[in-house]
Design goal:
Blueprint lengths: L1 H35 L1 H27 L5 H25 L5 H6 L4 H24 L6 E7 L2 E7 L1
Antiparallel strand pairs: 1-2
Helix pairs in contact: 1-2, 1-3, 2-5, 3-5
Length: 156
């Protein structure tokens, strides 16, 4: 159950970011970089990534688990990052014809470093959410047995 919950959280955390990336990537490549310059385009896309990260940890994470341990939260972020890298590379090679080495070389530029910083934030955002959420009390699991039937619920 724990592995399934962590995998589902990583998939959702990735999904929120990737949905934003599917909008911001083409927008940046076709308009923002030309109109505002590559640095401003990268900062604009990074801002969109940060908003996606905050939405992912504030709306998705609490629905999947009321309280996460730090290692679990970190695995969620790393899993989302791994999924993002795989899909980003697949898009670069299959749709854009950019070889993997050239695609990843973009991280050595200033706009690439800005994007890498935003991805790093997204990776560690579940841990930051945990730190915020750990100050509240975790709901207590109440198990009741009656007439051979066992039921459980979270108390608030």
């Amino acid at each position: 159950m724990k592995t399934a919950r962590i995998s589902l959280a990583a998939a959702w955390h990735f999904g929120v970011l990737f949905a934003v990336y599917l909008v911001s990537g083409p927008l940046r490549a076709t308009y923002l970089d030309a109109a505002l310059g590559p640095h401003t385009g990268a900062v604009t896309e990074a801002a969109m990534f940060l908003i996606a990260s905050i939405v992912a940890v504030s709306k998705v994470m609490p629905r999947l688990s009321p309280l996460w341990l730090v290692p679990e939260a970190l695995v969620v972020g790393l899993g989302a990052l791994a999924l993002f890298i795989i899909c980003d590379l697949a898009i670069a090679e299959s749709l854009c014809g950019v070889p993997a080495m050239r695609h990843f070389a973009r991280f050595s530029t200033v706009p690439g470093a800005i994007q890498a910083a935003a991805l790093t934030f997204h990776t560690f955002a579940p841990v930051a959410w945990w730190c915020e959420g750990s100050e509240t009390e975790a709901p207590e699991l109440v198990i009741q047995a009656s007439g051979g039937e066992v039921s459980s619920q979270l108390s608030s």
